[in-house]
User: Fold these one by one.
Assistant:
Number 1:
Amino acid sequence: MGATAEWSAADAGYAGCRSAGPSAYWRPVKAAAPDDSDEALMLAYRDGDAGAFDVLYARHRGGTYRYLLRQCRNAALAEEMFQDVWMNLIRARAGYTVQARFTTWLYRIAHNRLMDHFRRHDGDAVSLDDENAASAAEPEAPRGADPAVGVESRALAAQLLNLLGRLPAEQREAFVLQQESGMSVEEIAETTGVTRETAKSRLRYALAKLREGMQSWR
Amino acid sequence: MALKPGTEMNMEHDPQLADDYRRASGEMPSPELDAHIRAAARREAGAGPRRASRRSAWQVPLSLAAVVVLSVTIVLMMRDGGVALIEPEWLPPPVAESVAPQGAAEPAAKQRMAEAPPPAVPRASPPAVTGALQANPAPAPADAAPPMMAKAQPAAEAPVPAATAALRDESLSAGSNVASVREPAGPLLRSAPAGAAAEVAAGPAARMASPAAMSAPVRELWHDLVNEPAEKWAQRVAEWRRAGRAADADALAAEFRRRFPGQTLPDEAPGR
């Protein structure tokens, strides 16, 4: 392996997709070679290749962080849980075997960490009225964009995140998992520990509410 | 991330919402946190890589295979060596009187008869044998094979004749003296070829000094004449001298003088 991580290329290998048009949105920039798959990289890291971990981390650091941030809506808490998730992954590397997609395993760890937090701090989750939460969820303006367009984009992003924050946690989780990791309904169900029908229902409700909320902004 | 094929795009995926979400979500963990996690990952990777267990994945079976092969080899070697220990193949060759050189046999026979035990227990003199072997510590010849190889030779596998078996019984029943001859010799010398080669290297004297070789004619002599008068002994001595069996005749004469101290043989000078 020995590949170096490029932090600027968030979600390495897929960053180019985000600047492409909607039709190419979920298509990777280049077909990943078998040795560059998440699973192969994790196996390489299990066998002692630290460079493989760097590539994996570069690919998934943004997604896992935002997943945690959307659910707890507190930047400091999200960073704390983010660190726990990756440290758990590092500690569990010795027993890693390819039984499912790496992303399913990674987000399952993150989901469990969230559940632990909610069980211990029942009701401590930051509400939408919390100013810190609002600032933490403040989206970044797209780089290089027109200032006028940037203002509009900021407002649009703030509206979407506002709507997302109002969703029930399960529906929000289903939507964020789909957007951040590209999971299918089945993988969302596996990650969150529910049936496929439940996951499908949550995702549909989330999309319907977000569409309805964003209608006036388009 | 690519969506799975078959996803119901209208109901479970909205490209416009996805695009809006992509633009809204630019949050990243802090660089300090990134550095901390990457450092931890490197520490773990350097602390105990799983490659060690991958090495042991082939080291353990290899070690087991080596142990099995070694054990089987040792068992086979011990089985062959054990046969040699329990049933030694080294047997004293029977002495052919016509082959034994007279000149070399005479001194040994005289010494043997001088140290011979009483007639009731007719045995060859073991110290003479021991001395002969020790005086001629013939090294194992270059072609002396270890027990496993020696067994493969036809001579070692040949059936032992009845007379030879009887001699072996005599030799084994001789007790610790014979054992003392054999024990200093290593396992190589216990094999038939090595023993025979050592005997050849020791020369005719050693062959005559062999306990089995010494005991056969003397025992025959004593058994015949043990109850006979002195005249019969003298007659037998004279017969053997005429027949050219000088060594045996000398041995019989020595026994005659021991048994009948006051008498002399007819062909002996009075001062002898």
Number 2:
Amino acid sequence: MKFVDEYRDAAIVRRLSEAIARAATRPWTVMEICGGQTHAIVKYGLDELLPPGVTLVHGPGCPVCVTPAEMIDQAVGLALRPGVTLCSFGDMLRVPGSGIDLLTAKARGGGVRMVYSPLDAVEFARAHPSQQVVFFAVGFETTAPANAMAALRAERMGLANFSMVVSHVLVPPAMRAILGAPGNLVQGFLAAGHVCAVMGTGEYGPIAREFRAPVVVTGFEPVDILEGLLRCIRQLEAGRAEVENAYARVVRAEGNLPARAIVGQVFEVVDRNWRGLGVIASSGWGLKGRFAAFDAVKRFGLGAPAAAAAGECVSGEILRGLKKPPQCPAFGTRCTPEHPIGAPMVSSEGACAAYHRYRLRSRSESAA
Amino acid sequence: MCLAVPGKLLDAQGDDPLERSGRVSFGGVIKVVSLACTPEAQPGDYVLVHVGVAIAVVDAAEAEETFRYLRAMGELEGLEPEPPPAAAAP
Ligand code: SF4
């Protein structure tokens, strides 16, 4: 496919990894934000092409992984109510809450429907007026335009049977939380290209300056990731901490203005609890007052969800880049994709799932 | 979940900005996607699609520019070209 295959060119990948080896004179730790990038890195073995000392650690950019267990409990509770259909992206269905997951709720007769797009959930509500249809709106900035459009369309159609549980999260506040945490190892970031496609790059300048950490906007294919890393290493070596765009075919400095306008109509900034990271101030989006009628929490009189206990999963340390999945004592033994303990083992973008899928054989060496 | 896939826009319909949509081919697999966020997209353009919504038009000239630079990196063995100066954010 155009704009995909050429970015997997083995010769260019090799040249880039050689350039990184020449550029790096010291050890550096760089975090890629997005779970899609994590998967490409582990799948193509890009981390194994790096010189010793240059380490890629995996960030919190998997929306499914950071959705708190209590929100999943809330969604499960709604799905089990008679007359309710809970629509969700497929990735959410097997994420454990504090009790059962959505797939189990479905098996027990709950109304659970997997959708590809939030707009499909609106369409399903329109076609099934006797059902209460609730969309589980999770995601980062990339997904927000689609989720906001669902609210706008439902409003326009005057749908009385559509509502949303919103658990939207924002990348820049999480980057600040990671850089500011005690014991932080991250010296530079590969920013999530598709988040920037929507929001632009304006939020990263202050982060780069304040924390002296370069931020390179990076795409998702092997060539993109290594080019982003090369540019990041060159900045680190030169003592620079700037925002660079290594994904210029998709990302403009101002982002996508029509998309930002749509998001701005529907969502406002709220505090958000991140699974594994805790509450981060002003780190999410919730529905604006104008859309209160589409807020499932209000419609169904749901209280603030009770915080679920953390248990054995060390996803917080994984998401902060302090640990890699094989260092979790449950990895591959008590926690597997078939029987996940934590969310990063479930999601197609979770770091634990990536290592389990592509790296299980090297588990003993990496854990040593 | 921020996975977004580039596909070729085949056609576009609808005048209302919020309802504008088009058929997009992903290597032959065709889907209808919302063009509400990419009003500038024209048939023949490659759009980047995420959960049913086109969130960007891929800039073919920028893509070509990147490859010129990447190819040059291989040819000028040892002489490292600087990354393109463009696109640094404020
Ligand atoms: S291996 Fe399982 S338990 Fe361990 S951090 Fe990953 S998801 Fe959590």
